[in-house]
Design a protein that fits this description.
Elements (H helix, E strand, L loop, with lengths): L4 E10 L2 E8 L4 E6 L3 H12 L4 E5 L5 H10 L17 H11 L6 E3 H7 L6 H11 L9 E3 L13 E3 L1
Parallel strand pairs: 1-4, 5-6
Antiparallel strand pairs: 1-2, 2-3, 3-7
Helix pairs in contact: 4-5
Length: 163
């Protein structure tokens, strides 16, 4: 029987909106999404951890995670490079997420480059789908994944992450 995962919530006012930062009791980042998209975040958490297996409670004290993300918004693009994270996912998903973390701040790569990087050059569609569904392992959008036509196809007007 799967136990209920207790996750802690914090909010962060940023220049472009209010974020909800989700961590576990060990201080590892699990998810970030805009406060206006609470329903989407809850669906994502249910997809990763099972329906009704997650309890969200307000953190009793501020974490270093929020401080690091705030520093990112203040211009320190590397403040989020070493945030502790935890996630559920297949080995393929985890390889994609790791590869996304390796994209330098401000750099744009194509889906085909990303697929080649993880050793799965034929997985371009899967890469894009995984990105659009999960936006995994990008604490804050600091790089872009583009289609072969150089259109930014892997992001939309929102920033979100889940670990």
């Amino acid at each position: 029987m799967f136990h209920t995962l207790t996750l802690l919530t914090e909010t962060l006012a940023t220049p472009i909106g209010n974020l909800m930062v989700i961590s576990d009791e060990m201080g590892r980042l699990r998810a970030v999404d805009w406060i206006d998209y609470d329903d989407r975040l809850r669906r994502l958490l249910a997809r990763h951890y099972g329906k009704d297996n997650v309890t969200l409670i307000r953190a009793s004290r501020s974490s270093g995670l929020v401080s690091a993300i705030a520093a990112y918004f203040d211009g320190d693009l590397h403040a989020i490079d070493s945030l502790p994270t935890a996630t559920e996912g297949t080995s393929f998903q985890k390889r994609v997420w790791q590869a996304l973390c390796e994209i330098s701040a401000g750099r744009t790569v194509s889906y085909s480059e990303l697929a080649r990087h993880i050793g799965k050059p034929a997985a371009v569609r899967a890469e894009r789908k995984r990105w659009l569904l999960n936006h995994e392992k990008q604490a804050v959008q600091r790089s872009s994944v583009a289609s072969a036509s150089h259109k930014i196809g892997g992001q939309d007007s929102t920033m979100r992450l889940s670990f």
